[in-house]
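Recall the central idea of this unit: under ordinary conditions, the amino acid sequence of a chain determines the structure it adopts. In this exercise we apply that idea directly, starting from the sequence alone.
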Amino acid sequence: MALSLAAVLVITASVHAAGDEEAIKQAYVTYLQARIDRDIPAAQAASTGDDLAKQFLELDIQRQSYTRRVLKVGTQLKMSTTNPAATMPEPPKISAAKLGDALLKDAQIDIQGDTATVTPKNAKKGFGFKRENGVWKADLYQWQGPAITPELVKEYKENVPLLGELADRADKGEFKSSADLERAMQQMEMAVRAKHRPTSGPSTMPGK
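Accordingly, the structure predicted from this sequence is:
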Protein backbone atom coordinates (compact mmCIF):
# COMPACT_ATOMS: atom_id res chain seq x y z
CA MET A 1 0.00 0.00 0.00
CA ALA A 2 1.38 3.36 -0.98
CA LEU A 3 1.83 5.87 1.80
CA SER A 4 -0.08 9.12 1.62
CA LEU A 5 1.80 12.39 1.28
CA ALA A 6 0.81 13.30 4.85
CA ALA A 7 2.25 10.04 6.19
CA VAL A 8 5.50 10.57 4.28
CA LEU A 9 5.81 14.08 5.69
CA VAL A 10 5.24 12.83 9.24
CA ILE A 11 7.87 10.11 8.86
CA THR A 12 10.34 12.58 7.32
CA ALA A 13 9.77 15.07 10.16
CA SER A 14 10.30 12.33 12.75
CA VAL A 15 13.60 11.30 11.14
CA HIS A 16 14.81 14.90 11.05
CA ALA A 17 13.78 15.43 14.67
CA ALA A 18 15.65 12.32 15.78
CA GLY A 19 18.71 13.46 13.87
CA ASP A 20 18.52 16.90 15.47
CA GLU A 21 18.23 15.40 18.95
CA GLU A 22 21.38 13.35 18.45
CA ALA A 23 23.22 16.39 17.04
CA ILE A 24 22.11 18.48 20.04
CA LYS A 25 23.28 15.81 22.48
CA GLN A 26 26.66 15.72 20.73
CA ALA A 27 26.85 19.53 20.86
CA TYR A 28 26.16 19.32 24.59
CA VAL A 29 29.00 16.83 25.11
CA THR A 30 31.42 18.80 22.91
CA TYR A 31 30.85 22.05 24.78
CA LEU A 32 30.92 20.31 28.15
CA GLN A 33 34.26 18.63 27.35
CA ALA A 34 35.76 21.96 26.31
CA ARG A 35 34.71 23.47 29.63
CA ILE A 36 36.08 20.51 31.57
CA ASP A 37 39.39 20.79 29.71
CA ARG A 38 39.33 24.58 30.17
CA ASP A 39 39.99 24.84 26.44
CA ILE A 40 38.93 28.36 25.48
CA PRO A 41 39.19 28.02 21.65
CA ALA A 42 37.28 24.72 21.71
CA ALA A 43 34.59 26.16 23.98
CA GLN A 44 34.22 29.21 21.74
CA ALA A 45 33.94 27.00 18.66
CA ALA A 46 31.27 24.86 20.33
CA SER A 47 29.14 27.81 21.42
CA THR A 48 27.35 30.77 19.95
CA GLY A 49 26.88 34.31 21.24
CA ASP A 50 27.87 37.90 20.64
CA ASP A 51 31.19 39.52 21.59
CA LEU A 52 30.04 40.13 25.17
CA ALA A 53 29.12 36.48 25.65
CA LYS A 54 32.41 35.31 24.15
CA GLN A 55 34.34 37.65 26.47
CA PHE A 56 32.46 36.22 29.44
CA LEU A 57 33.19 32.66 28.31
CA GLU A 58 36.93 33.33 28.06
CA LEU A 59 37.07 35.07 31.43
CA ASP A 60 34.96 32.42 33.14
CA ILE A 61 37.21 29.60 31.93
CA GLN A 62 40.26 31.57 33.06
CA ARG A 63 38.61 32.04 36.46
CA GLN A 64 38.00 28.31 36.78
CA SER A 65 41.56 27.50 35.76
CA TYR A 66 43.10 29.98 38.22
CA THR A 67 40.82 28.79 41.01
CA ARG A 68 41.81 25.18 40.44
CA ARG A 69 45.52 26.09 40.60
CA VAL A 70 45.06 27.98 43.87
CA LEU A 71 43.03 25.18 45.44
CA LYS A 72 45.60 22.60 44.35
CA VAL A 73 48.44 24.50 46.05
CA GLY A 74 46.30 25.07 49.14
CA THR A 75 45.54 21.36 49.43
CA GLN A 76 49.20 20.47 48.95
CA LEU A 77 50.23 22.92 51.69
CA LYS A 78 47.71 21.42 54.10
CA MET A 79 48.96 17.91 53.34
CA SER A 80 52.59 18.95 53.87
CA THR A 81 51.88 19.98 57.47
CA THR A 82 51.21 16.36 58.42
CA ASN A 83 53.38 14.60 55.84
CA PRO A 84 56.08 16.76 54.17
CA ALA A 85 56.80 14.05 51.60
CA ALA A 86 53.18 13.72 50.52
CA THR A 87 52.13 14.77 47.04
CA MET A 88 48.58 15.33 45.92
CA PRO A 89 47.52 12.89 43.19
CA GLU A 90 46.07 14.31 40.01
CA PRO A 91 42.28 14.16 40.02
CA PRO A 92 40.74 11.62 37.63
CA LYS A 93 39.94 13.01 34.21
CA ILE A 94 36.24 13.66 33.79
CA SER A 95 34.64 12.24 30.66
CA ALA A 96 32.07 14.60 29.19
CA ALA A 97 30.61 11.69 27.24
CA LYS A 98 29.86 9.70 30.41
CA LEU A 99 28.69 12.78 32.26
CA GLY A 100 26.54 13.75 29.30
CA ASP A 101 24.97 10.29 29.15
CA ALA A 102 23.98 10.61 32.80
CA LEU A 103 22.68 14.17 32.49
CA LEU A 104 20.85 13.61 29.22
CA LYS A 105 19.19 10.34 30.18
CA ASP A 106 15.44 10.93 30.08
CA ALA A 107 16.09 14.61 29.31
CA GLN A 108 13.40 16.59 27.53
CA ILE A 109 14.55 18.12 24.24
CA ASP A 110 12.32 20.87 22.89
CA ILE A 111 13.22 21.90 19.33
CA GLN A 112 11.72 25.05 17.85
CA GLY A 113 13.22 25.63 14.40
CA ASP A 114 16.86 26.61 14.91
CA THR A 115 16.66 26.83 18.69
CA ALA A 116 16.39 24.07 21.25
CA THR A 117 16.27 23.59 25.00
CA VAL A 118 17.57 20.50 26.76
CA THR A 119 16.10 20.02 30.22
CA PRO A 120 17.55 17.13 32.25
CA LYS A 121 15.11 15.10 34.30
CA ASN A 122 14.10 16.88 37.53
CA ALA A 123 16.01 20.03 36.49
CA LYS A 124 14.35 23.42 36.97
CA LYS A 125 16.20 25.06 34.09
CA GLY A 126 17.34 23.79 30.72
CA PHE A 127 20.36 24.34 28.51
CA GLY A 128 19.87 26.40 25.35
CA PHE A 129 21.21 25.58 21.88
CA LYS A 130 21.13 27.30 18.51
CA ARG A 131 21.70 25.97 15.03
CA GLU A 132 24.34 28.11 13.36
CA ASN A 133 25.17 27.41 9.70
CA GLY A 134 23.64 23.97 10.10
CA VAL A 135 25.59 23.13 13.28
CA TRP A 136 24.05 22.95 16.74
CA LYS A 137 26.00 24.92 19.37
CA ALA A 138 25.56 25.87 23.02
CA ASP A 139 23.75 29.20 23.32
CA LEU A 140 25.80 31.13 25.87
CA TYR A 141 22.85 33.36 26.78
CA GLN A 142 20.62 30.36 27.43
CA TRP A 143 23.13 28.17 29.23
CA GLN A 144 22.90 27.42 32.93
CA GLY A 145 24.92 29.90 34.97
CA PRO A 146 24.95 33.61 35.79
CA ALA A 147 23.15 36.00 33.48
CA ILE A 148 25.69 37.57 31.13
CA THR A 149 25.59 41.35 31.47
CA PRO A 150 28.04 44.17 30.67
CA GLU A 151 28.39 44.77 34.42
CA LEU A 152 29.35 41.14 35.06
CA VAL A 153 31.91 41.11 32.25
CA LYS A 154 33.41 44.36 33.58
CA GLU A 155 33.68 42.84 37.05
CA TYR A 156 35.34 39.71 35.65
CA LYS A 157 37.82 41.81 33.69
CA GLU A 158 38.87 43.50 36.92
CA ASN A 159 38.85 40.46 39.20
CA VAL A 160 40.07 37.53 37.12
CA PRO A 161 43.57 39.00 36.58
CA LEU A 162 43.90 39.37 40.37
CA LEU A 163 43.08 35.70 40.76
CA GLY A 164 45.60 34.88 38.02
CA GLU A 165 48.32 36.79 39.88
CA LEU A 166 47.50 34.86 43.04
CA ALA A 167 47.68 31.56 41.14
CA ASP A 168 51.10 32.52 39.73
CA ARG A 169 52.39 33.37 43.22
CA ALA A 170 51.06 30.08 44.55
CA ASP A 171 52.69 28.08 41.72
CA LYS A 172 56.05 29.77 42.41
CA GLY A 173 55.97 28.55 46.01
CA GLU A 174 55.61 32.01 47.54
CA PHE A 175 53.31 30.70 50.26
CA LYS A 176 54.82 28.46 52.93
CA SER A 177 51.58 27.42 54.57
CA SER A 178 47.91 27.16 53.79
CA ALA A 179 47.35 30.01 56.30
CA ASP A 180 49.63 32.26 54.22
CA LEU A 181 47.64 31.43 51.11
CA GLU A 182 44.34 32.03 52.87
CA ARG A 183 45.54 35.46 54.03
CA ALA A 184 46.55 36.32 50.47
CA MET A 185 43.12 35.24 49.25
CA GLN A 186 41.48 37.46 51.87
CA GLN A 187 43.64 40.40 50.77
CA MET A 188 42.63 39.78 47.16
CA GLU A 189 38.95 39.69 48.15
CA MET A 190 39.39 42.98 50.04
CA ALA A 191 40.99 44.52 46.95
CA VAL A 192 38.06 43.35 44.85
CA ARG A 193 35.52 44.79 47.29
CA ALA A 194 37.44 48.07 47.40
CA LYS A 195 37.14 48.39 43.63
CA HIS A 196 33.38 48.08 43.80
CA ARG A 197 32.86 50.11 46.98
CA PRO A 198 30.78 53.27 46.37
CA THR A 199 32.89 56.44 46.44
CA SER A 200 30.03 58.76 47.34
CA GLY A 201 27.26 58.84 49.86
CA PRO A 202 27.34 58.34 53.62
CA SER A 203 30.17 56.30 55.08
CA THR A 204 29.40 52.87 56.49
CA MET A 205 32.55 52.81 58.62
CA PRO A 206 31.95 52.69 62.40
CA GLY A 207 32.05 56.11 64.04
CA LYS A 208 31.77 57.99 60.74
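Residues 7-195 form one domain.
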